[in-house]
Specification:
By secondary structure, the chain is α+β, with helices and mostly antiparallel strands. It has one domain. Helix content is 48%, strand content 22%. The protein has 4 helices and 4 strands; from the N terminus they run ββααααββ. A 4-stranded antiparallel sheet has the order 2-1-3-4, with no helix packed on it. A hairpin with a 2-residue loop joins β3 and β4. The relative contact order is 0.19. The N terminus is likely disordered.
């Protein structure tokens, strides 16, 4: 079921009832936005590509992979820091040791972590969407949603088996 965030200023809550073997397993009342587990692979790519070039890991942040986001941000910070240290140490002293290899390695690591983000985030989004669909298909779900827009009440009922 899609998000109902555009239904006016009132919060929208949905009740989900989970059944298996003809018996009620559980019931949850959740905000409508929390029930939308679909993550767009295209959005994951676009967020990872730009502005992800400047902040690595945004594609993984979009799909909810916080640990991978932190690792990619850390790799970016270390590669930029080492690159700047190499550049600054050779700036004033023409007799300083040659740090071109270090600077080149930092550029490769920087670009590699960025490429990983925009290549892996869409693939992971597809995988997560497929997994979520399998999990939804394993239980019978009845979702009931209500909202108000322009003084009109709306009711949405979604059934899955």
């Amino acid at each position: 079921m899609g998000s109902m965030a555009g239904w006016g200023q009132q919060p929208v809550y949905l009740t989900r009832l989970y059944y298996s073997d003809g018996k009620l397993d559980s019931a949850k009342i959740e905000h409508a936005d929390s029930m939308s587990t679909y993550k767009s692979p295209t959005t994951a790519f676009l967020v990872a590509f730009f502005p992800g070039f400047f902040i690595h890991g945004l594609g993984h942040a979009y799909i909810g992979k916080g640990n991978t986001t932190l690792v990619l941000m850390g790799i970016e910070a270390v590669s930029v820091g080492l690159f700047l240290a190499a550049a600054i140490s050779t700036w004033d002293d023409p007799h300083a040791p040659d740090l071109d290899l270090l600077a080149f390695s930092c550029v490769i690591i920087f670009l590699g972590s960025w490429i990983y983000d925009f290549a892996a985030a869409p693939a992971k989004a597809i995988s997560m969407n497929q997994q979520a669909e399998l999990e939804r298909g394993s239980k019978t779900t009845i979702s009931i949603g209500a909202g108000i827009k322009d003084t009109q009440a709306r009711l949405v009922i979604s059934l899955r088996w």
